[in-house]
Specification:
Layout: H1 2-7, E1 21-26, E2 31-35, H2 48-58, E3 64-70, H3 80-87, E4 94-99, E5 102-107, H4 108-111
Parallel strand pairs: 3-4
Antiparallel strand pairs: 1-2, 1-3, 4-5
Bound molecules: tetrahydrodeoxyuridine.
Residues 13, 16, 18, 20, 36, 38, 45, 47-49, 78-79, 82 line the site of tetrahydrodeoxyuridine.
Length: 118
Amino acid sequence: MTEARLASERTYSPYSHFPVGAALLAGNGEIFTGANIENASYGLTICAERVALGNCFTAGRHDIIAIAVYTPSMPVAPCGACRQFIIEFGKDIIVVFREGNEVVQKTIGELLPYSFSF
Ligand code: THU
């Protein structure tokens, strides 16, 4: 969560002014971070979680243990698109996010039952 908070200081979010940071723990203990990157064509925006996953994969790590999400303004859980993106890499990945004053840990399988796959 600390790494996710640091990543939330490195977003490109001039349109929403809603910075999001993500930090992903790989099997070897390495941490990969991501921040949301917005675009004038709003739909092209990439969420922090998906940037973190891209950084992890391009570093050659495919074993993801957990992903934490941090937003400075109000606590949020990962969006539906990111849940689908995360579950691609394992139903048991732990998602850490804030809910009120609590830090919640759920598996991505719990957050996205009946996910799409073929
Ligand atoms: N955002 C994320 O980075 N992750 C999410 O799970 C939900 C939303 C970003 C996208 C956009 O830059 C901003 O939050 C407001 O929607």
